[in-house]
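Example record used in the benchmark description.
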Amino acid sequence: MLIIAAFRPDGSPRWRDVTAEKLPPKDSVARNSMDVEAADLDGDGDLDLVRANLGPLSVWENTGAKFVDASAKFLPEAIVAQQLGLEIADFDGDGVLDLYLACLAGPNKDARSFDRLLLGLKR
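Model output (structure tokens):
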């Protein structure tokens, strides 16, 4: 088990808050995160983020310098169902990451408001 102390030996904090400089502006995306998963979605070697939340699902691409909202680039459509959680894995065994969304069904029982499985497409 890996254990990392929250403070360095000199007593200074181990982390610094870079939210304002590294994440999309807080007024540009919903900030009601229910779950966040990290994976290399674009194959560039760094971790991108997929955020399940009470607003639209969002994908944040890691540009190296900061994360940018790239939901339209990665998702087939805007997913507005309220998501409670998500998992990223190769569910169909084709070597491409897939996305499973655990959603809260809306009152209209629209099929798009139930759990969703998005299969990754080969480049």
